[in-house]
């Protein structure tokens, strides 16, 4: 069996006396797409926040490539090989598309690298261009970020995440606010990226999740109630019960 890239064991998170996440255990193999779904308030964002170091878990442990990273501060995650995008578009609107990615690349460097090494600057430019090419934005390189269409802004965020060359990409609702065409483009992008990366995503668009994911985890009231292939999840009686009556396209 392959060593899991990421393994969480008995992970939980409390807010005061409220248990938002409880006893979640799962291991994630490399180069797979896993979706985390669940009704509103199920604990998806909390799980993502814990996985990406936004907050430590109250219980349990998280291992990345066999190394215990429980409680590691968020700013160290990019160096570990874990990158995250947010639900809300999170770019510098007044900077160019290329500048947005280069700033991210620069942030991963030390001051010494930046000020003393001209070659390092060229390398940063090249890295930014490679990330833009990977998400299909090379042609908009010099556009001001605020003038990109919404779908392109989300792709830019992914380029920003890619500049650290992460092995694990955590994507919080990458198709939020997108219509069918933009969603289709994003799915195509994620399929390309998934060839040599591990992707975990939180999403609400069920048809998209069923088509894209190798595996789906279902959270409900902070607990993992199902974990399996899209086919398995679609026929799981507990999942069907949880989603019954929810107007989110699940069928
Ligand atoms: N910082 C916080 N303090 C107190 N309670 C919180 C906090 N963050 C989340 N919660 C609570 O934890 C529960 C899980 O919230 P979470 O945002 O993780 O759910 P979710 O599945 O992402 O929901 P949605 O699909 O609506 O985004 C909710 O009841 C929420 O009110």
UniProtKB/TrEMBL annotation:
It comes from the Bacteria. Gene3D superfamilies: P-loop containing nucleotide triphosphate hydrolases. One of its GO terms (molecular function) is ATP binding. Residues 6-246 form the ABC transporter domain. Keywords: ATP-binding, Nucleotide-binding, Transport. One of its GO terms (cellular component) is plasma membrane. PROSITE patterns: ABC_TRANSPORTER_1, ABC_TRANSPORTER_2. PANTHER family: ABC TRANSPORTER ATP-BINDING PROTEIN, CONSERVED COMPONENT OF ABC TRANSPORTER FOR NATURAL AMINO ACIDS-RELATED. Belongs to the ABC transporter superfamily. This is Amino acid/amide ABC transporter ATP-binding protein 1 (HAAT family). It comes from Enterovirga rhinocerotis.
